[in-house]
Amino acid sequence: MWKKSHKEIVRLSIRKLGLKRNEFTATLLRYIDEPDRIRRRRKRQRYLPHHAGRQQDIIEYILSARIKFLNGDLKSAGRSLAWALHLIHDHCIEKNRHDELERKIAKINMNKEYRNVQINPLKFERFTDLKTYIYHNVAPKENPEDSILAALNHTVSVICSVVSEKRDPPEDILRKYEECLKLFYAERRKLRRLGLLNFTLSNFAFLFITSIISTLMKADYFSLLMFLGFFIEPIIVLVSFGRENKYEKPLRELENEIAWHSGKYPPK
Ligand SMILES: [Zn+2]
Questions:
Q1: Are residues 124 and 210 in the same domain?
Q2: In the chain, % of residues over pLDDT 70
Q3: Which whole-number Å values give the CA distances from 185 to 189, 243, 245, 250, in the listed order?
Q4: Hey, which residues does 141 pair with through a beta bridge?
Q5: Among 33, 91, 119, 195, which one is most buried in terms of CB atoms within 10 A?
Q6: Structural domain total, the chain
Q7: Distance from the CA of 205 to the center of ligand 1, in angstroms?
Q8: Would you state the pLDDT for residue 42?
Q9: Domain residue limits at 215
Q10: Domain check: are 184 and 156 in the same one?
């Protein structure tokens, strides 16, 4: 979308939500076209797509905006949210015809046409609800009116969720987090034990095989050991200790969920 269109959608959304003008809304409006500015300035990032496939980034920008907002950092919050909303707006436009649609959208007087359109903001209480929404509802539309309406709906809902009151994280989430944390540490201990065992056994095998090779090649054992060890040892370390903890990802998701409510990551 054009800068003008991004701005109009955000301005309308702020008005529909009845938000007071402050540092947050001002930063949001100032940075709404930053993704395009950067794209133009840095040639290498020019083709980083704005129009599709950036759902994960959108979600991360929104979470970051929410956490900053709850911690009183209104400027950074506005800027993160600007990035999220910019990408959301662009995702509402059919990629293959986006030049044509953008031009048509820019010609529409949004303030006049959409001022009285009824928008019901969805407030995403849970971070998982927000994620589901972004993945399933933010989708390209075929004509300018539908694009604007979709962008407006998403914008109102996302802003409304980001600025909603700080609250205690739900009990069930905290309980799940405690459980997951226990599993995570147990798994980590297990992986360390296993890693140490693998490391020891692999090194014995390495010493043994090297001694056979040195005998066969009639080479000096220690020189060969140093030489081969230089290549083999990093691999042994990587294979022994590089295994991922399977509870890491669920734990991070629960941490994000908690931060979405309270603005703080739980202490480990
Ligand atoms: Zn863009």
A1: no
A2: 96
A3: 6, 14, 9, 13
A4: 93
A5: 91
A6: 2
A7: 56
A8: 66
A9: 171-262
A10: no
Q: Rounded to whole angstroms, how far apart are CA atoms 82 and 69?
A: 13
Residue 108 Cα to ligand 1 midpoint, Å, equals 18
How far does the centroid of ligand 1 lie from the alpha carbon of residue 99, in Å?
11
Residue 210 located in a structural domain? yes
Res 47: pLDDT = 53
Is 267 contained in some domain? no
**Residue 266 tokens, joined:** 């739980």
What DSSP string runs through 87-150?
HHHHHTB-GGGHHHHHHHHHHS-HHHHSTT----PPP--SHHHHHHHHHHH---BSSHHHHHHH
What's the pLDDT at 99? 85
3-class SS letters over 208-247: HHHHHHHHHHCCCHHHHHHHHHHHHHHHHHHHHHCCCCCC
125 and 26 housed in the same domain: yes
- Residue ranges in the chain whose pLDDT is less than 70: 40-48
Pick the last residue of a domain from 162, 196, 214: 162
221/234 Cα distance (integer angstroms)? 20
Q: Please give the distance, rounded to the nearest whole angstrom, from the Cα atom of residue 140 to the centre of ligand 1.
A: 14
Closest CA to 247 of 171, 185, 172: 185
Predicted local confidence at residue 16, as pLDDT: 93
Say if 150 falls within a structural domain. Answer: yes
**Can you tell me the distance from the alpha carbon of 267 to that of 262, in angstroms, rounded to the nearest whole number?**
13
